[in-house]
Amino acid sequence: MAEPLLSVRDLVVEFPTRRGTLTAINKVSFDIHPGEVLGVVGESGAGKSLTGAAIIGLLEPPGRIAGGEIRLRGERIDHLTREAMRRIRGKRIGMVFQDPLTSLNPLYTVSQQLTETILTHLPVSRKEARERAIALLDRVGIPAARRRIDDYPHHFSGGMRQRVVIALALAAEPELVIADEPTTALDVSVQAQIIDLIKEICMERGASVMLITHDMGVIAETADRVAVLYAGRLAEIGPVHDVITKAEHPYTKGLMGSIPTLSHDEDRLVQIPGSMPRLTAIPTGCAFNPRCGEAFAKCHVDRPDPIERPDNRQVACWLYEKESAHV
Amino acid sequence: MIAFILRRIVQSILVMLVVALVSFSLFRYVGDPVATMLGQEATLQDRAELRERLGLNDPIVVQFWDFLSRAVTGDFGLSYRLQQPVMELILSRLPATLELALISGIVAFIVGVGLGVYTALNRRGVGSNSIMAVSLIGVSLPTFLIGVLLIWVFAVELQWLPSFGRGETVDLGSWTTGFLTESGRASLVLPVITLGLYQMTLIMRLVRSEMLEVLRTDYIKFARARGLSNRAINFGHALKNTLVPVITIAGLQMGSIIAFAIITETVFQWPGVGALFINSVQFVDVPVMAAYLLLISFIFVVINLIVDLLYYVVDPRLRVDRAAPGH
Amino acid sequence: MNRFARAWDSDVAYSFRHSPVAMVAAIVALTIILSAVLAPWIAPHEPFNPATLNLMDGFTPPGTPNAFTGNTFILGTDDQGRDILSAILYGARISLFVGFAAVVFAMVMGITLGLIAGWRGGWVDSLLMRIADVQMSFPSILIALLIFGVARGFIPQDMREDLAIWVLIVSIGLSDWVPFARVVRGSAMVEKNKEYVQAARVIGVHPTRIVVSHILPNVLGPVLVIATIHLALAIIAEATLSFLGVGVPPTQPSLGTLIRIGQGFLFSGEWWILLFPSVALLALALSVNLLGDWLRDALNPRLR
């Protein structure tokens, strides 16, 4: 396959605290290819958002990247200077946050926020920037964009504001857009529209998307491939159709079982017993072992690394160790 | 918008009426105006005549109305102590107080905002920590002590600056100013520091905590994700949002500055209304006390009103004149 | 209640042991308070008994023997030959007395009005809170000054000196009740609607009893924090008024009065008359203030 757009290898993110260092992301690796939508799923606290923040270089101190590397078109971006990283943010990697109501500065008009972003990254005049901004707003589906561009964020509804946020993330034509739970804070009725918009507009511009969500349904409809995170580790990654229909990791199976429309047993939803461990109390061996129905002795002792599986899949589970040895 | 302004004006008038009532009660019931004006040797008939002439036999409502109508025209009678019209006394001393208060307010605001921003942006720096520590002492140090210590160091020991009075002033008709002479400006330095220091520490601490709060918001995170420069984020986005609440409080502090001028004026024998008021309290000079009370309340009410309107201008969310939110 | 009190104590005690600032502040404050209380027994001289003063001792610099009498004073003497250290001890006594009394006054008034406002609600509440709002929009020192001036007007001339301290206490107290009233009102309004209070009312428990046994314990913490911080403010307010010459009478000088007197000798070079009372006032106000800050944080773990 061609060179990946983004390549994350053995990423480790740590939070030094008074009671010792917490490892929030532990040796996570994945690639995002040009023009691809990678879904990242997991429960809250699994490290989805932190992965996004680490890639774009916006980990909140004292969080830091403690190991591994992140490459954008083969070039390392995890240890760039602050200024060099700033030039990448917005220009090459755009980001859409969860809550459109708080993502926009209430004291600046939409036009001010858009043109300032465009002027920061692109060599255009103020006037051109404004025209571009209007075109962008129009493209993300703001009616009467030319008239509404000078409105303040509070003049827009939540869904409209998320469209503005998307316009802002795409203002400088980034190659990768990280969308962190872009619809969680929105009305159910507009969620699908926003997801469709993100996908459509990114495909049209050839941008890849890293779609972070806890909603498997959204992933199923939107993503090309999906990465499942559990307790800061990668559980499984592969083409979205395969993972959904033939989940291999016991955690992923449980996750699929908990989605109404995907559940094989139509009568009741399967629930995974217990809850994800806190970062302070991750068990030795596989992090999922206390909740896993198929765990055996090895799972309690050694941590499984992702194992290559057929069809371009990887799964971090000892169940597949022998099987893959046979392959 | 107009309804809002009208409501605030009505409220202000109500407050002024209450203050006028207090002021009137002072006039009417504190001490015996007749005895004070005539002295101990007056005959009973003199007293009765004066009572009649002063309208002290009228119904109380009529007396209050008289008091109000005279107060509106600036007629507060004669000072018991100085035997001069109160309004004349106050007007001759008002420029000194207003010049002092205005310069102190401006200095306190500029330095306070500057240091607040500095300490917020360099939160863990040595400079910030020492500024914060010193500011704690600044808050605990009584205003008069600051003045006395400044006089000791800069007037007595170093002999750099004058320790009392306004220096030479220039008479501009109804206004005397100390700005136009060197000794006038030199005389301002120590009183301005004394009066402004407390407000400055207050504004600084407020700016710091507000700014730290703002820097944690989503829209600042999103601004970083858009790759805006630190300059644009800190001094465009963060500072503007910080200043909205700060302007309100700083505006209200302006009233406090005029009130605290009483202390500074006493320390530096500054010929302003504050020193006049202190003398009137010492000598129970009721007309001056009553007039000062009304004057200072009026200033407070006007400042409150202006601050409210300013808030309205600065924060677009409060302006509802534009189109209502819609999709 | 008892268990609650113990847990509360131990938490606060824990935070105290881990805050060097609080410990130093407590030691400084306690030292000043104790020596002020014990002034008549530990002060080297009786500064306000004219019989014991020797004018020849006047203007003795600190720690050096007087040129005429050979007497040595640790912190020197003023123009009257008064020992500055003794004057500070007696002055701190007055400052602390006025400060404590004013805060107690403000506290009792604030708690009472706050309870009435919160418990009764309706127009009583609106009226009290409106007054509080108006009062809060003026600096308290200005309010205290005004009340002081008005009160003096009502008191006959010959009694003004004798009553000055009490007038001062009432003025500072009256200017300071609002924060107490607000916190108590808030708590009273919340508790009033709780089921156990409703139940107690139904079975006919007297409101006073409900208030004393259920509402007051809840506001003890915040009230204590406000009281501590406002003790520092009251001490400063007293010093300020006395410095302005409208506080305690010159016959009973507080720290503020001593600073006022000391300012007069700055230009003639007798700096110690000013400096030592200033340091004492600053140490007292700062230590009480820091204690108040620490207490607020200790009782409010959320804020840390």
TrEMBL record, chain A:
Transmembrane segments: none annotated. One of its GO terms (molecular function) is ATP hydrolysis activity. The keyword Transport applies. It is found in: Cell inner membrane. InterPro entries: AAA+_ATPase, ABC_Ni/Peptide_Import, ABC_transporter-like_ATP-bd, ABC_transporter-like_CS, Oligopep_ABC_C, P-loop_NTPase. One of its GO terms (cellular component) is plasma membrane. SUPFAM superfamilies: P-loop containing nucleoside triphosphate hydrolases. Pfam families: ABC_tran, oligo_HPY. Its main location: membrane. CDD domains: ABC_NikE_OppD_transporters. Keywords: ATP-binding, Cell membrane, Membrane, Nucleotide-binding, Transport. It is a peripheral membrane protein. Belongs to the ABC transporter superfamily. This is ABC transporter ATP-binding protein. It comes from Roseibium aquae.
From TrEMBL, chain B:
It is found in: Cell membrane. The chain crosses the membrane at residues 12-30, 100-121, 133-155, 188-207, 243-263, 289-314. Its main location: membrane. GO terms for cellular component: plasma membrane. Residues 94-311 form the ABC transmembrane type-1 domain. Keywords: Cell membrane, Membrane, Transmembrane, Transmembrane helix, Transport. It is a multi-pass membrane protein. GO terms for biological process: transmembrane transport. Gene3D superfamilies: MetI-like. InterPro entries: BPD_transp_1_N (IPR045621), MetI-like (IPR000515), MetI-like_sf (IPR035906). Belongs to the binding-protein-dependent transport system permease family. PANTHER family: ABC TRANSPORTER PERMEASE PROTEIN, DIPEPTIDE TRANSPORT SYSTEM PERMEASE PROTEIN DPPB-RELATED. This is ABC transporter permease. It comes from Roseibium aquae.
UniProtKB/TrEMBL annotation, chain C:
The keyword Glycoprotein does not apply. Belongs to the binding-protein-dependent transport system permease family. Keywords: Cell membrane, Membrane, Transmembrane, Transmembrane helix, Transport. InterPro entries: BP-dependent_transpt_permease, MetI-like, MetI-like_sf, OppC_N. It comes from Roseibium aquae. This is Peptide ABC transporter permease. It is a multi-pass membrane protein. It is found in: Cell membrane.
